[in-house]
Amino acid sequence: HFFKGLFFQSYRLKGVWMVGLLMLILAMLAAFTGYVLVWAQMSFWAGVVITSLLSVIPVWGHQIVMWVWGAYIMAGTTLKFFFVLHFLIPWAILILVVGHLMLLHETGSTSVIYCHGDTDKEFFAPYYWLKDMLNLFLWLTFFLFVFLYPFSLSDPEMFIEANPMMSP
């Protein structure tokens, strides 16, 4: 998608391009934090090695590593920080996707298969508004169900007491 945008010179649409680029960077950050979480939970040493890769950034690398660690060592606080980042970033990406689509709706696209006349742009018809409101209602109903009854859809075997003397 990114290289297609380069080919069709989509970078001329600065707002659309910058929001898309920010989505790409946030997706990479979410993947990085998820990758570090797994290794750092097994071994702080692995987390230190992976996050120390940020120190290769010229000028600010050391400060970025210290900010990521939260101190001069990697500890449980760092894992909590990565955990929070890993699960909040997708929401930020979702907001950016909406902004990206709104900007595309306003400016159009630079793709050659797109017709560049104003007559070909789709306006926000009441049908789309109604469809979006129905989707919003369904999602809110789903989230309300999940938040009020969190264990109703879970597996009962999750609540069996663990026996450390017996292997699974």
Describe the structure.
Pfam families: Cytochrome_B. The main subunits of complex b-c1 are: cytochrome b, cytochrome c1 and the Rieske protein. It is a multi-pass membrane protein. It is found in: Mitochondrion inner membrane. GO terms for molecular function: metal ion binding; oxidoreductase activity; quinol-cytochrome-c reductase activity. There is one protein chain. Helices cover 64% and strands 0% of the residues. With 168 residues, it is mostly helical. It is built from six helices and no strands. The relative contact order is 0.10. It has a domain of 115 residues: Cytochrome Bc1 Complex, Chain C, CATH 1.20.810.10. The model has no long low-confidence stretch (mean pLDDT 83).
| Residues in helices, as a percent range | 55-70%
CATH class term of the domain at 2-116: Mainly Alpha
Helix segment tally: 6
Overall mean pLDDT stands at: 83
Fourth CATH level, the homologous superfamily of the domain at 2-116: Cytochrome Bc1 Complex, Chain C
Structural class: mainly alpha
Which regions have little confidence, pLDDT < 50, spanning 5+ residues? none
The separation of the N and C termini measures: 44 Å
Q: What CATH architecture label of the domain at 2-116 applies?
A: Up-down Bundle
**Biggest β-sheet, characterized?**
none
* SSE pattern, N- to C-terminal: HHHHHH
CATH fold-level topology of the domain at 2-116: Cytochrome Bc1 Complex, Chain C
- Number of strand segments: 0
Shape: flat
Question: What is the strand content?
Answer: under 5%
C-alpha Rg (nearest Å): 22 Å
